[in-house]
Design a protein that fits this description.
Length: 344
């Protein structure tokens, strides 16, 4: 495996499976477990229409329960694989492996997971990649431990060497590092030759410090889908309009503006006097489909239509995600795609 062959694939490239972790009474979902289980059942049903799902479970009891719930929903259990590993919570976008292709094999980048800058306990989550790797889940793969706090939700790649991220998040994690330093480190570890930074964009109820995967996502090397806001009375309006202007000013590798697809803005969802982060940009691309978070809002259908324009060759499948935003994340945040060949 030669160093120069390392490449960070885009999410739309062929996949082996999607990795998730089943919510249980020992996670932060405990108070609303029934509601969130329905989202996970719908998610696994959607994934397994197209490809396998690998479901992390905390122990034998959780596995037996999850298997029963999924089986009763008539899901193709031949496409569901359970692996046992302890975890603090189920946000595998941020605690799971960031997988690079390395010749005919793979390199699993295992960055530090600090519970989004020490906001939550993450001691088990920080060990998840190592534990899965030690179990032999991943084929033809080397694990590279990197002592640098980085979550998968904080980065987007076009698969061709361009990374998109938000300065707010990376600066929050590494306040003593300059933009030039962090750009150089990300470029080296992730084998990118361009890092595009957004300085605007945030969502109330987001405790990730503005992860890019709630704001703006590549749909192709020349296309970006982003969370818009068209309501001047909304508290997000100025910030998301400023982010839209930043995106319009970005250029592709060959100097052209990106094709931009603004997503509609859902009506405010308030829970115990707290605004929840209902972003349509937190979608998941899988083989043949895009799974879209739906919030039971009138604009769900409009968001589905925008994604159909951005991904004309994929089916757009809505997954009910309103229970997820109670814990400040959505569909992309609880999943991690695994490139084709990295698992059997």
């Amino acid at each position: 495996m030669s160093e120069h062959a390392l490449r960070f694939p885009a999410e739309w490239e062929p996949q082996s499976a999607v990795l998730i972790a089943w919510p249980n009474a020992d996670t932060d979902w405990a108070d609303r477990l029934g509601e969130v289980e329905e989202t996970y059942i719908a998610l696994v049903a959607a994934i397994t229409r197209f490809q396998p799902a690998i479901v992390c479970v905390a122990d034998d009891d959780v596995q037996a329960y999850a298997r029963a719930r999924l089986s009763s929903a008539r899901i193709d259990m031949g496409r569901v694989r359970f692996v046992e590993a302890p975890y603090d919570d189920t946000w595998l976008r941020d605690s799971g492996p960031i997988t690079l292709r390395e010749g005919d094999g793979f390199r699993l980048l295992d960055f530090r997971f600090t519970g989004w800058g020490g906001k939550f306990d993450a001691s088990q989550d920080d060990l998840l990649v190592e534990r899965l790797h030690d179990q032999g889940i991943f084929l033809n793969s080397d694990r590279q431990s990197i002592d640098f706090a980085l979550e998968g939700g904080a980065i987007e790649t076009d698969g061709a060497g361009t990374l998109l991220s938000t300065w707010r998040c990376l600066h929050e994690r590494h306040p003593d590092a300059s933009r030039e330093q962090i750009t150089a480190q990300l470029s080296d570890w992730l084998r990118q030759d361009r890092v595009l930074w957004l300085d605007h964009g945030y969502l109330e109820g987001d405790d990730t410090d503005a992860h890019i995967d709630t704001l703006a996502r590549f749909a192709a090397p020349d296309a970006i889908v982003y969370q818009g806001c068209d309501d001047p009375a909304d508290s997000h309006y100025a910030e998301l309009q400023a982010m839209a202007a930043e995106l319009a000013a970005l250029r592709t590798r060959d100097g052209k503006p990106y094709r931009l697809f603004p997503l509609p803005w859902a009506q405010p969802i308030i829970d115990e006097n707290r605004r929840l982060a209902a972003s349509y940009a937190n979608f998941l691309i899988i083989d043949g489909a895009v799974l879209m978070p739906a919030y039971g809002d009138a604009r769900d259908a409009e968001a589905q239509a925008v994604l159909a324009q951005a991904f004309p060759d994929r089916e757009i499948v809505a997954v009910p995600c309103r229970p997820l935003i109670w814990q400040n994340g959505s569909l992309h945040c609880i999943t991690m795609q695994l490139p084709r060949g990295v698992v059997a």
